[in-house]
Write a structure and sequence with these properties.
Length: 210
Amino acid sequence: MNIKNIVLGEPIENFLKIRQLDRYMTGHNGYIAGGVFKNIFNNEKIKDVDIFFEKSKDFIEADEEFKKNENYKFKYKNKKVTAYINIKTGVIVELIKHKFKKPLDMIAEFDFTITKFVYYKVDNSEDEEFSWEIAYHNKFFEHLHMKRLVIDEEVENIILPVNTFNRMFRYARYGYFPCRESKAKIIQAMRRLPSFSEELLGIELYNGLD
């Protein structure tokens, strides 16, 4: 991943709001990334938390931990996630199981800059403990404040343009709108799709598939 646009190494003490996520980080080796940080820094209620993993073994172990944790109840399961709801907070925790990558590699694939934020643990082998670290796009706070949907300039190819297109409409409901350059990138990416994707596009848009 090209990290020239990623801010690393800032003390977690500068972001005390994030520490409310600690309760969802215990008992497993996963990390939190994505849209939840938009909610936190906008002082909005957290509805769900996405937990990612570096390898499938970590997901399996985390799934077992949440199953036996009396503070959680099973919520739903599909090909992409297994979800549990925290009985005390009402927050849904989604364990992502369709893709496994390291934290920085994962957010490198995220399209919009306001989703490129990750909170993860780093092992300190000397004292057998870990430290909390964060990384985020250097335009994260600017675009969050301006409510701009901007596709990271380092993203050369939008991996799933139909999904990005759908999310653009979803974010619009919350007052976030794409810049001209991002609109152009999405249009260009969709033009490169094979012709049979027109049928897939219709299914995803009108049947709610994502």
